[in-house]
Design brief:
Blueprint: H1 2-9, H2 13-38, H3 42-54, H4 63-78, E1 84-88, H5 94-100, H6 104-109, E2 114-118, H7 132-137, H8 147-156, E3 164-168, H9 171-174, E4 183-188, H10 193-203, E5 207-216, H11 223-235, E6 243-244, E7 249-253
Parallel strand pairs: 1-2, 1-4, 2-3, 4-5
Antiparallel strand pairs: 5-7, 6-7
Helix pairs in contact: 4-5, 10-11
S-adenosylmethionine binds at residues 59-61, 89-91, 94-95, 118-119, 122-124, 143, 145, 170-171, 189-192, 195.
Organism: Candidatus Campbellbacteria bacterium CG22_combo_CG10-13_8_21_14_all_43_18
InterPro entries: SAM-dependent_MTases_sf, TylF_MeTrfase
Pfam families: TylF
Length: 256
């Protein structure tokens, strides 16, 4: 009725509000189909809200990868794995917030801390080990995030406190400042061979038994990333049992 009247009176706002309504319905349908695929639980309803909140402004990661990080984060909590939560390659903090959320209380009390490392200048230049294709895709400056956005998402979600450490700078200059405390969960999302390699060399041995290492881009056309991870495991004489939710990001549970 109101549409008819508005059409007659030629009121343009009606079309806009209809378009918005349809786009909301389409978005809801997309989220619901995602939730049905993963199976619902109370935790996942929180996850659903966080994904809706964080994408695309604060994270580049697709929902399945965010779900994987969230599940692993909940898993270290349930199993009482001690240690901090680390992300190398933060962009605007969406994935980091989702990893931190299950540990709100422990972070507040200082029992667990969060360290977030990024240049906030985007990627450095790829090396020859990243292959010719990546020279254009993961070019210098790719995925440049803003540190203020990281603070913003943590504050908006009620998580910002002094135990969230956001460390700006190139990994070659910042990772050595990590206080060598235990790590329960580390997400390495740094796109490139050299960047991934330095994260592994500096931090991976601090991951505790039962803790997780998560590698974005493993096995994809980002060949440098895969190479750095394979070389790391070879150097430690580990044949890792890598698992994935979506074939773009893999996790390894440290079992020794
Ligand atoms: C794909 S983005 C990270 C995406 C993020 N995890 C998310 O949730 O959207 C990769 C990030 O790694 C950072 N980065 C890559 N190599 C780096 C290096 N050597 N030192 C510091 N930061 C680096 C870039 O600045 C970029 O923000």
């Amino acid at each position: 009725m109101s549409l008819k009247l508005s059409l007659k009176s030629g009121f343009p706002g009606t079309w806009e509000s209809l378009r918005l309504r349809f786009s909301k319905i389409r978005r809801l349908k997309k989220h619901l189909s995602f939730l049905f695929r993963i199976g619902l639980s109370k935790n996942h309803l929180v996850l659903f809200r966080m994904i809706d909140f964080a994408r695309p402004e604060y994270t580049m990661l697709r929902p399945m990868r965010l779900k994987m990080l969230y599940d692993l984060s909940n898993n270290i909590k349930e199993n009482g794995v001690e240690g901090n939560i680390i992300e190398c390659g933060v962009y605007q903090g969406g994935a980091a917030m989702i990893m931190a959320e299950p540990h709100k209380e422990e972070i507040k009390s200082g029992k667990r801390k969060v360290y977030l490392f990024d240049s906030f200048e985007g990627n450095p230049a790829p090396s020859a080990k990243d292959g010719p294709e990546m020279q254009n895709i993961y070019h210098p400056g790719f995925a440049k995030g803003r540190i203020e956005k990281v603070r913003e998402i943590f504050s908006r979600w009620g998580l910002m406190n002094p135990n969230i450490h956001i460390v700006k700078g190139w990994f070659s200059e910042t990772l050595s400042a990590y206080p060598k405390n235990k790590i329960a969960l580390i997400h390495i999302d740094a796109n490139l061979y050299e960047s991934t390699k330095i994260c592994l060399e500096s931090l991976a041995d601090l991951v505790q038994r039962g803790g997780y290492m998560v590698f974005d881009d493993y096995g994809t056309r980002a060949k440098g990333c895969t190479k750095a991870i394979d070389e790391f495991f070879q150097s430690r004489q580990i044949t890792p049992d890598l698992k994935t939710y979506d074939n773009f990001s893999y996790y390894y549970k440290k079992d020794f």
